[in-house]
Design brief:
single chain, alpha+beta, Chloramphenicol Acetyltransferase, five-stranded mixed sheet, four-stranded mixed sheet, 15 strands, CAT-like_dom_sf
Amino acid sequence: MLSWLLSAFSPHKHTPSPTGVRTIPCTAVDLFAANGLVLTIGLVINARLDAKLLEESLSRLIERKFPRAGARLAFRNGAYEFQIPEAFDAKTSPAAFTVDEYPEPYNASGRPQIPCALTGSQPSIVPLPELDQFFRSKTCPKTEAEFLKPNVPLLHIHFTVFHDLTFIGVTVPHMGFDLLGIAVLLAAWTRVINGDDFDAIHGMEWDAQPFAHYVPAPGSSSLTPKRTSLRGWFKLGWLSQLSFIGRSVLSSIRDPKDVGYLVRVPKVFLNEEKRKIMDELKAQGSSEYVGSSDVLMAWWHKTIYSYRAPTDHTPVHLHFAGNLRSRSVFGQDGPLAHPYTNNAVSHLPVPPIPVNTFVTESLGELALHVRRAILAYNADMVSLRADLHWLFEGSNATKMAFPCPPSAEFSYMTNWRDGKLRSTRLLWRGREQFEVGGCGYAGGVR
């Protein structure tokens, strides 16, 4: 929304690039994925860590391996861009660091209880404790507009250190990172802290532009198929737009409060359910299969829609964020050869499923429905490249696209399993987001 307002009301006079920075334009993928969101990733470590050592190690990593992570987000000449300082110093730091230190143990003063002992072989759902104050400082930007102010780093790191615990909050604008991009940076940071060979850590070049070949040359005519939007997203007329927005507002009025929960789905549960489903398919003589991720997504939707009436046929449009980094859509039609922290996701749509289907169908049938959609999407590389060509043409990335028609509902999920953070206890806070079994899922349902 902010990009549309800036485009509409800002004069597009030519403003030269500021001195002392290198500029890289934000991609159409950054614009489409961001939607003005600010993300905070929260890590809880069962030890008292040295905040100064953490700051020095991350600063060194950004300066030498990931300079793009130390960029500033700017809006210049009608377009978003990253402004990367040519040199970092005390006034132009690679990230903003803040620290709150307490000499006592975390539980000494009746603070919110952290559910650190979730055990058992069955899924569990518990209220999410109010831990925001430990992950974000009072000066931490809360909106994309605040990140657009002069000399505001993309990364804001807040440490809250107790005698027995350390909270690490990583706040970024979604315009600058996707979830797996943050995981890439966290993984490299962990290696530095662990004393790995610094020179062996793969970084990201400041001028990396893996989507550059999708950008049409000035004045060229497109040869790609004309599309109204990405698959699974809709271009609605004015009446349908008003209906969609009106229904969304009414839904917020009826249920104005967001309530956070921690959802734990044990790996042993997923593996057992997957085994049962595979046994059933084998007994039917089927060669189809499901993965544990399919079972997890099917379980989640079956759980959240279980309260709905079996006569409710409202179609639900499922959207899964897919990682493009491993897909053959870059140079020479190959995957990305180096780490990439900016947005690199596609949108995988699942054919609409009526609400009552989540109530009446088995977990196996729903998981198979998800797996078939994923297989069809992965096999259609022509359409995936066409999606990217369409996204980079003109102003398509900023066009209003809707996740479902006004008479339907939608669910959007992001899978963190590729981020390999399952060994870390992750508490994820933000708009319409939740944590699942240490695998960091983010999702929203309407």
